Amino acid sequence: MSTPLPASSATGRTGTPRAAGSWPVVLCWIAVALDGFDLVVLGAVIPTLLGTGNLGFTPSSVTAASTIGLVGVGLGAVAIGPLTDRFGRRKSLISCVLMFSLFTLAIPLAADVTQFTALRLLAGLGLGACLPTALAYMSEHASAGRNGRAVTLTMTGYHVGAVLTALLALVMIDSYGWESMFVVGGLAGLTTVPLLWAKLPESEAYLRALESVGDAKPAVVRSADVVKGRFLRVSIGLWVASFMGLLLVYGLNTWLPTIMGEAGYSIKAGTGLLLVLNVGAVIGLVAAGGISDARGNKRTVLAWFGLAAVFLAMLSIKIDSSLLVYVAVLLAGIFVFSAQVLVYAFVGHLYPPEIRGTALGMSAGVGRIGAIVGPSLGGALVTAGIAYPWGFYAFAVAAVLAVAALSTVPADMHSAER
Question: Which of 27, 45, 56, 134 has an alpha carbon 20 to 30 Å from 417's alpha carbon atom?
Answer without folding.
Answer: 134
